[in-house]
Amino acid sequence: MKNEEITFENVIEKTLEKVKHYEKESQYFIRPLQNNCVYELLVNDFPVYKDYGIEKLGTPININGVILQSGPQTVTVRLYPLGDALKRAYGEGETITTLLPKTEMKIKVVKYEAFNISDELEDEIVVKEHTSPAKEDSEEFEGAGLPYYEYTFTFNAEVPYKNEGWSNGENLTKFEKNELEGKVLSYYKMYKKLHADKKLDNIIRLEFDQELRKSRALYKSRQDIEDVWNEYKSEFDFQNLEYQPIENYELSFYGNGKVVCLKFPSKEPVDRRHRGKGAFWFKFKRSVNGSKRARWTNIYLYLPKGQPLDSLQMIP
After folding, report:
1. What is the average per-residue pLDDT within 92-111?
2. What pairing do the DSSP bridges indicate for beta strands 46-51 and 27-35?
3. Which end of the chain has fewer CB atoms surrounding its CB within 10 Å, N or C?
4. Which domain of life is it from (predicted)?
């Protein structure tokens, strides 16, 4: 196993050793504003946010974790019909199965230069504004009448760090699907067993590289890093964990084919409880009041270039 020297006792110090701070610590965010649709957002072909309801997002989405280095970045917008979102929100309304003519998505990409982000709007620098495409010579949404619509635009980012991430991975879409799916499923089952056996140090070793990437990209403080690893530990304090079967999933690719995971479907027909979530999940009882809850975990895998398929590992 990678990172064999890492344990819960030293992971905070090991992370801090590799997190640098800079005079300017740029942080990038997305502000989406949707109308007549639900959606998913990806940056550099990696999922950063999903919303299958109709409420407008008040807080912008930090995307530094998937900006690996300075240069052009892509934003992919996946739009879905409202389905029964109106009915769920208001208790009435029809089920909408195709995108409407008045569907619209407006997105701002913004950045802050300061490390301590101010709530003052004037501190926000607008990097890019983009609106979903309309039909030529018309205000009607280009994807009206479709059950799904996707489009991509780009913006430039300047960050002081450089993360390798999954950029040096193999294109997993070139492997035989059944063989790849079998290897991915085996990894999930291995992770599930480690989790069930409360092997905290082993879980931390698997997760270390990707959490380090995010810590570097977000210029995290000691307290931020402590919070991350304490959250992992807290899962082992849950009561009466009930691990659910890993089934009814899709083999899904991200990172331009270099990242793979098992997730529940996003497109209709869907199970509302699981829509777009990771296929590894469990139920548990909260120690506070004994109520039953559920937690889903995304396990994103990649294959370092030149390695055999048995070497699938969590993305760094």
Report:
1. 96
2. unpaired
3. N
4. Bacteria
